[in-house]
């Protein structure tokens, strides 16, 4: 989809409707037959991104069969790095949308937060499977490390960001390990 490619390449806020229509070779009439506004298109793109990234993370994590569920939890960083390395997409659309939206009540921000919550739900499930104590607090802290690694990867184009995030998350896992 032209809009998705443009949003990844230039950011949501920097891509106007005219550029999308030009890239997709569409008229405004055709566009408005499918979408009420550019905001609706952005929400559709974000919803599609949520489905795609969540599926890729789940499949990537599942492919890393390992006896240690803690290793599986940490593999989230590996999966996301593989995603970034295997594509021209160097940014997280959720983060891009959230930081450029006018505020929390904005529908674009709501769509971005919804997608991020789905990823957080996966992290929560993996944390439970890893047997960490205080799962809610752990998932919030893990999410902060994960988001920070994604932002560092996006802003600095730092290819080591996910590896650094993985190391920090491993220390967090050790700190939250169940005392069986």
UniProtKB/TrEMBL annotation:
Domain HTH tetR-type per the UniProt entry, residue ranges: 1-53
Highest taxon in the source lineage: Bacteria
Cytoplasm found in the keyword field: no
Entry-linked Pfam families: TetR_N (PF00440)
DNA-binding region, residue intervals: 16-35
GO molecular function, one term: DNA binding
Tagged with keyword Cytoplasm: no
UniProt keyword annotations, A-Z: DNA-binding, Transcription, Transcription regulation
InterPro entries documented for this protein: Homeodomain-like_sf (IPR009057), HTH_TetR (IPR001647), Tet_transcr_reg_TetR-rel_C_sf (IPR036271)
Protein name: Putative transcriptional regulator
Organism: Pseudobythopirellula maris
